[in-house]
Structures are given as C-alpha cells and as structure tokens.
Design brief:
It is a single chain. By secondary structure, the chain is mostly helical. The protein contains twelve helices and seven strands. A three-stranded antiparallel β-sheet has the order 1-3-2. 33% of the residues are buried.
C-alpha cells in the first residue's frame, strides 16, 4: 500500500513494465535480470507518473527485492554469499547488488515476455490494475505509445493537450533519447549514471518543441545540463556535417577547471553509436541554426 495516496503501491508494476521494455528491446535476452543502472533509469522514468503522490524519488530496490514474494523473481547470490539472502534488506541498490548477482524470472514467464502479443496483454493487465490513478494511467498510455496521437508525429497545439499527455510525452522522449546516446553528453562526452538510475544528461529538443510539436528521436540529442542550456540559448549549434559551431559573440565565458565551450569549435560530434534513423535530422538542425543560433539572429 502506498501510504501517501492510500492506493496499492505502484513499485512492482512499474518495474515489470521496465523489464518488459528491456525484453522487447533485447537488453534482457535471458531469464536473468540484473539490477543495473540502465534498468533503474527506466524504472525512474516510469516512476515520474506517480510523482504527484508525494514521493520525490522512486526506489527500484524495493520492487526488485519484494517481487520474490510474488513468485515472479528468485534471487541468485554472488558466490559464497547465499546465506546472506535470508538477512539482506532493500536499503539501497548498492546493498542489494553486493549480495545479489541477479534475479531469475520463471522460464515460462520469460517465454511469454518474448512474445509480442503476450507482452501487450501483460501491459494491459498492469495498466488496468488498481495500482494507478486515472491520470497516471493516461500518462502510461502515452509513454507506451497507445495514446490517440502516435509518438513521433506532430502533436496538436499545446492548449489542446492535457497535463497528463504532456508529462507522458516528456517522459517517453527522455526514455528514448538518453539510452540511445549511451547516457552521455553528445558534445562533451560526460557520463554519470548512478546505481539508482539518476543521470547527469538530459534529452534536448533541437527544433524547440513549443514550435515544432515534434518528439521524434531525430529531433533530440542527449546533453549534459550545461550544454543543454547553452544549446537552448543558441550559444552553439551543429553544422550540416555535424561540426560544432560556437557563437562568436553574445556571451562571456570563464572555465578555468573545465573545457570551455569555445574549445569545441570546429570539432565533430561522435555519432558512431547511433543508427542512421536515430541521428539528428538536418531539417531540425537547420531550424536551430537559423532561428536559435546567436550569430544568425543578431
């Protein structure tokens, strides 16, 4: 029971949704489920839909630990630590990972998870259960792409969208963009991903969403907070060959302990990890160069 909302706790169904996503994408290709930072990140994204209940941060270690009582998972200890399985408590991701090597799904359940129709049925059951409030269920439908407006298309005018649709859209955009960039900033390469799933990088729109209504992955990049802010301010952009172009005027910079923005001028961002259909679309970059880049609009 979730004490904040007096409703059934959503931890377990949210983790199961994250696991289904990983099975679908191939990131989980056997019944073994590891409590990885990447799985934690996915769980945290889903957790945002219940944030209004009063909890600031979701704790993925709780459902990972307690799903064993439902027969959905069994824990496998690291070599020599089997005895500790009976005494550990889910105080943190790190504390569980020190003892638990991985969890195992029942073979029959994992087989069903690998089937597209069975996954859809499982998601339907999870969404229609009493774990979620109506507005939370609507956000989940948007994240899972079963809302009326398909993801990756032009959304209607901002005024016609409910807050639930907007939040679900934002979460889905981030859950797609950040992992395909390896949880690292495209410009500086910094990557910080905590065991709990918290990451330093953000999902940045290239063609401003309020103008484009476009949430396709080709209209996004993963950037650290500093370089996301600088991109939105038009202090840098990317050329037609993905060359970094830094504004020559319009800002003062002093960065004695880190690489200054101007040092990236004329370098090329590394898109080698991205498939062609995920790379930034030049149409969106062209809009940014013409309408946001400081040197172009001054």
């Amino acid at each position: 029971m979730d004490r904040a909302s007096k409703t059934p706790a959503p931890h377990k169904p949210l983790l199961l949704l994250a696991i289904l996503d990983f099975v679908e994408s191939g990131l989980i290709d056997s019944p073994c489920v590891r409590l990885s930072p990447e799985l934690s990140f996915r769980f945290l994204g889903y957790w945002e839909i219940v944030g209004a209940r009063g909890r600031l941060v979701g704790r993925v270690e709780l459902p990972f630990f307690y799903l064993r009582s439902d027969g959905i998972m069994s824990h496998v200890a690291h070599v020599g630590l089997s005895a500790a399985l009976t005494s550990i408590r889910p105080t943190s991701v790190e504390s569980l990972n020190r003892v638990i090597s991985h969890a195992e799904l029942p073979a029959e359940l994992f087989s069903l998870m690998q089937d597209e129709k069975s996954r859809a049925a499982m998601r339907k059951v999870l969404l229609e259960g009493d774990w979620f409030l109506p507005e939370e269920r609507q956000k989940l439908e948007v994240i899972l792409g079963i809302e009326e407006t398909p993801f990756g298309t032009i959304y209607p005018d901002h005024s016609t969208q409910s807050e639930e649709v907007r939040q679900g859209r934002d979460i889905r955009f981030r859950l797609q963009i950040v992992p395909i960039y390896g949880y690292a900033c495209l410009l500086c390469g910094v990557k910080m991903l905590l065991p709990s799933g918290i990451t330093l990088v953000e999902a940045a729109h290239i063609h401003q969403f309020s103008k484009s209504r476009n949430d396709d992955v080709t209209n996004g990049m993963a950037l650290c907070r500093n370089h996301h802010w600088a991109f939105d301010q038009g202090l840098w952009t990317l050329g037609s060959d993905f060359e970094v172009i830094v504004a020559t005027t319009g800002f003062f910079e002093d960065a004695p302990n880190q690489t200054p923005l101007r040092a990236y001028q004329s370098s090329h961002v590394d898109l080698s990890r991205l498939s062609s259909e995920h790379r930034p679309n030049q149409k969106h970059l062209d809009w940014h160069r013409k309408h946001r880049f400081v040197d172009a609009i001054r």
